[in-house]
Design a protein that fits this description.
InterPro entries: Gate_dom, SpmB. Helix content is 80%, strand content 0%. The protein contains eight helices and no strands.
Length: 177
Protein backbone atom coordinates (compact mmCIF):
# COMPACT_ATOMS: atom_id res chain seq x y z
CA UNK A 1 0.00 0.00 0.00
CA UNK A 2 2.73 2.44 1.02
CA UNK A 3 4.79 1.66 -2.09
CA UNK A 4 1.73 2.29 -4.25
CA UNK A 5 1.18 5.70 -2.68
CA UNK A 6 4.85 6.58 -3.13
CA UNK A 7 4.73 5.50 -6.78
CA UNK A 8 1.57 7.57 -7.33
CA UNK A 9 3.21 10.61 -5.74
CA UNK A 10 6.28 10.23 -7.93
CA UNK A 11 4.34 9.81 -11.18
CA UNK A 12 1.35 12.14 -10.78
CA UNK A 13 3.06 15.31 -12.11
CA UNK A 14 4.79 13.60 -15.06
CA UNK A 15 1.49 11.83 -15.78
CA UNK A 16 -0.44 15.10 -15.81
CA UNK A 17 2.12 16.70 -18.12
CA UNK A 18 1.90 13.72 -20.46
CA UNK A 19 -1.91 13.87 -20.38
CA UNK A 20 -1.90 17.58 -21.29
CA UNK A 21 0.50 16.91 -24.18
CA UNK A 22 -1.54 13.97 -25.49
CA UNK A 23 -4.82 15.94 -25.33
CA UNK A 24 -3.19 18.94 -27.03
CA UNK A 25 -1.75 16.77 -29.80
CA UNK A 26 -5.09 15.00 -30.30
CA UNK A 27 -6.73 18.39 -30.75
CA UNK A 28 -3.95 19.35 -33.16
CA UNK A 29 -2.92 22.36 -31.10
CA UNK A 30 0.48 23.99 -31.71
CA UNK A 31 1.90 22.82 -28.36
CA UNK A 32 5.32 24.42 -28.60
CA UNK A 33 3.99 27.78 -29.81
CA UNK A 34 1.36 27.84 -27.05
CA UNK A 35 4.03 26.99 -24.49
CA UNK A 36 6.24 29.85 -25.70
CA UNK A 37 3.29 32.30 -25.64
CA UNK A 38 2.43 31.21 -22.10
CA UNK A 39 6.04 31.56 -20.98
CA UNK A 40 6.19 35.05 -22.50
CA UNK A 41 2.99 36.06 -20.68
CA UNK A 42 4.39 34.63 -17.45
CA UNK A 43 7.62 36.55 -17.87
CA UNK A 44 5.74 39.81 -18.46
CA UNK A 45 3.66 39.23 -15.34
CA UNK A 46 6.81 38.49 -13.34
CA UNK A 47 8.34 41.80 -14.48
CA UNK A 48 5.14 43.67 -13.54
CA UNK A 49 5.13 42.15 -10.04
CA UNK A 50 8.70 43.14 -9.11
CA UNK A 51 7.81 46.65 -7.82
CA UNK A 52 5.05 45.22 -5.60
CA UNK A 53 7.38 42.55 -4.28
CA UNK A 54 10.12 45.07 -3.49
CA UNK A 55 7.63 47.38 -1.75
CA UNK A 56 6.36 44.53 0.44
CA UNK A 57 9.87 43.38 1.38
CA UNK A 58 10.90 46.94 2.29
CA UNK A 59 7.76 47.43 4.40
CA UNK A 60 8.38 44.21 6.35
CA UNK A 61 12.04 45.13 6.90
CA UNK A 62 11.07 48.56 8.22
CA UNK A 63 8.40 46.99 10.46
CA UNK A 64 10.97 44.67 12.05
CA UNK A 65 13.94 47.07 12.17
CA UNK A 66 11.96 49.97 13.64
CA UNK A 67 11.01 48.00 16.72
CA UNK A 68 7.30 48.21 15.88
CA UNK A 69 7.03 44.42 15.87
CA UNK A 70 8.63 44.13 19.32
CA UNK A 71 6.39 46.89 20.68
CA UNK A 72 3.28 45.19 19.32
CA UNK A 73 4.33 41.87 20.86
CA UNK A 74 4.85 43.57 24.26
CA UNK A 75 1.42 45.20 24.04
CA UNK A 76 -0.40 42.02 23.04
CA UNK A 77 1.38 39.54 25.33
CA UNK A 78 -0.46 40.48 28.57
CA UNK A 79 -3.81 40.20 26.80
CA UNK A 80 -3.16 36.93 24.96
CA UNK A 81 -1.15 35.02 27.58
CA UNK A 82 -4.19 34.43 29.85
CA UNK A 83 -5.95 32.92 26.83
CA UNK A 84 -3.19 30.31 26.55
CA UNK A 85 -1.49 31.92 23.58
CA UNK A 86 2.29 31.84 24.08
CA UNK A 87 4.01 35.19 23.49
CA UNK A 88 6.82 33.45 21.58
CA UNK A 89 4.50 32.82 18.61
CA UNK A 90 3.16 36.38 18.40
CA UNK A 91 5.93 37.64 16.07
CA UNK A 92 5.05 34.82 13.70
CA UNK A 93 1.33 35.58 13.88
CA UNK A 94 1.97 39.27 13.21
CA UNK A 95 4.43 38.72 10.35
CA UNK A 96 2.61 35.89 8.57
CA UNK A 97 0.02 38.15 6.86
CA UNK A 98 2.88 40.35 5.62
CA UNK A 99 5.67 38.02 4.55
CA UNK A 100 5.99 34.28 4.30
CA UNK A 101 9.78 34.37 4.41
CA UNK A 102 9.86 36.60 7.51
CA UNK A 103 7.33 34.35 9.24
CA UNK A 104 9.30 31.27 8.21
CA UNK A 105 12.43 32.84 9.70
CA UNK A 106 10.62 33.36 13.02
CA UNK A 107 9.25 29.81 12.87
CA UNK A 108 12.72 28.43 12.19
CA UNK A 109 14.13 30.31 15.19
CA UNK A 110 11.36 28.98 17.45
CA UNK A 111 11.90 25.42 16.23
CA UNK A 112 15.68 25.73 16.58
CA UNK A 113 15.32 27.08 20.14
CA UNK A 114 12.52 24.88 21.48
CA UNK A 115 12.65 21.84 19.18
CA UNK A 116 10.28 20.62 16.48
CA UNK A 117 8.36 18.33 18.85
CA UNK A 118 7.86 20.95 21.55
CA UNK A 119 4.48 22.59 22.02
CA UNK A 120 5.85 25.83 20.52
CA UNK A 121 7.44 23.99 17.59
CA UNK A 122 4.21 22.19 16.78
CA UNK A 123 2.16 25.35 17.22
CA UNK A 124 4.31 27.53 14.97
CA UNK A 125 4.49 24.75 12.37
CA UNK A 126 0.70 24.48 12.36
CA UNK A 127 0.36 28.25 12.10
CA UNK A 128 2.84 28.38 9.20
CA UNK A 129 0.99 25.69 7.29
CA UNK A 130 -2.54 26.88 7.91
CA UNK A 131 -2.32 30.58 7.10
CA UNK A 132 -1.37 32.70 4.14
CA UNK A 133 0.44 35.95 3.44
CA UNK A 134 -2.64 38.15 3.08
CA UNK A 135 -1.04 41.49 2.28
CA UNK A 136 1.61 39.90 0.08
CA UNK A 137 -1.11 38.19 -1.96
CA UNK A 138 -3.16 41.38 -2.17
CA UNK A 139 -0.29 43.62 -3.20
CA UNK A 140 1.38 41.19 -5.56
CA UNK A 141 -1.50 39.53 -7.32
CA UNK A 142 -4.03 42.33 -7.26
CA UNK A 143 -1.35 44.88 -8.14
CA UNK A 144 0.03 42.84 -11.01
CA UNK A 145 -3.33 42.73 -12.76
CA UNK A 146 -4.22 46.34 -11.97
CA UNK A 147 -6.93 45.88 -9.33
CA UNK A 148 -7.05 49.09 -7.29
CA UNK A 149 -10.22 48.57 -5.24
CA UNK A 150 -9.73 45.58 -2.95
CA UNK A 151 -13.13 46.04 -1.30
CA UNK A 152 -13.53 43.27 1.31
CA UNK A 153 -10.41 41.28 0.44
CA UNK A 154 -8.09 42.68 3.17
CA UNK A 155 -10.58 42.29 6.02
CA UNK A 156 -11.61 38.84 4.81
CA UNK A 157 -7.97 37.77 4.62
CA UNK A 158 -7.21 39.10 8.10
CA UNK A 159 -10.27 37.38 9.56
CA UNK A 160 -9.03 34.15 7.97
CA UNK A 161 -5.54 34.74 9.43
CA UNK A 162 -6.92 35.35 12.93
CA UNK A 163 -9.18 32.31 12.63
CA UNK A 164 -6.30 30.04 11.60
CA UNK A 165 -4.12 31.46 14.38
CA UNK A 166 -6.75 30.75 17.04
CA UNK A 167 -7.65 27.37 15.53
CA UNK A 168 -3.96 26.41 15.51
CA UNK A 169 -3.66 27.23 19.21
CA UNK A 170 -6.87 25.33 20.00
CA UNK A 171 -6.11 22.19 18.00
CA UNK A 172 -2.43 21.93 18.93
CA UNK A 173 -3.39 22.19 22.61
CA UNK A 174 -6.23 19.69 22.09
CA UNK A 175 -4.12 17.14 20.24
CA UNK A 176 -0.74 17.52 21.96
CA UNK A 177 -1.92 18.68 25.38
Amino acid sequence: MEKGIIALAEWIIPGLILLVLVVALCRRLPVYELFIAGAQDGFEIAIKTIPYLVAMLVAVSIFRASGALDLLVKLLSPVLSPLGIPPEVLPHALLRPLSGSAALGVATDIIRTHGPDSMLGRLVSTMQGSSDTTFYVLSLYFGSVGIKKYRYAPITGLIADITTFLASVFFVRLIFG
